[in-house]
Amino acid sequence: MSKFNLSKLGPGLLFAGAAIGVSHLVQSTRAGADFGWGLVWALLLINLFKYPFFQYGPRYAQATGETLLDGYFKLGKGYLWVYFILNIATMFTIQSAVTIVTAGLASTLFGLTSNIVTWGIIITLSCSVILILGKYQWLDKLIKVIMVTLAISSILAVSVAFAKNDTPLSFQQVFPDSSGLLFLIAFLGWMPAPLDISIWHSIWTIEKNKTQANNSLRDSLFDFNVGYIATILLALCFLGLGALVMFGSGSQFSNQGGEFAQQLIELYTSNLGQAAYGIIGIAAFTTMLSTTLTTLDASPRAMSKTIQLLFSKEKNYYLPWMIILTFGTAAIFLFLLSEMGQLVQIATVLSFMTAPLYSFLNYRLVISKAMPKEHQPKKGLRILSVVGILFLTGFTLFYLLSL
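Below the sequence we write its predicted structure tokens.
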């Protein structure tokens, strides 16, 4: 049995960094604020049913030495064109959404200026410089520091909330009525993350193998499981914070991510005491900074690889796409900030509705001839995959029929 060490962790933590963002800080907290502990069933169920399809990213990459995008191309060029179009439709909105929440938190925590647009552009440019200069190696090291800080501060925050709570806890589960259905869809769509992040994970796995040889499939799956379990535990932490501090408070919460984040810190501070301000602030800011940084890295990598495959190019287009995404994000801040709520809603619904497609493609790849037989998923994971595809497809149809 090979000895596992911390240096082999990387892509799984990057996955966690990308996943633990708006879905956790905003949507999980809001789920707790609006429904108490009543949506724990949805949180656990969606993480269970999405698990195989996220796991197939590093599994396929480690077993074949290729990204999922290479696999999609083998299944049919049309699948890659669909991915390209969907990514163009959502990448700028997603980057803007996560960055604006990070900017709102930075404004609240650090002062300097209350202008969210200014903070958004500062954060975007700073992350771009880090990624361009440091490439994967800096990202790999930085995310480990961020994730440890995030885990400690989040667990401390929810522990304080439990200690301060003096009302009986109710764990009765609920299914939202028609007015809450759209929120449930968004919650499921981005919990723990959109399924296309499995593509990013496969790309990061290949990058990790360039900087560290001798990684095995076992190492990659252990790394993934560490990151995945972290996303579930921290989602429960944020849902718990919403349930313990915000549920039944009577407060009206903003639909705008940046404003919601500020309300969140202020409400936590007023309920848990000024001493909790630093803990909550660090937990919230590291949550969003990790997502801002990882999404800014992953989208250009994915688009570069897609262009290479679609047009048979050898050139690396990471830097051009980084510049395009940076300026596109800044443009949304400057000209479409008032429409951010609608743009995010469109992106979350698209993420949910495309989940059956990505789940089908990922499963089909890992049981195809392109995948070495000894690395294909075992019977239990195959059964969970089929049930997961049926669940995601069924819930998507249910949503479409309820419109």
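The chain has one domain: 6-298+330-402.
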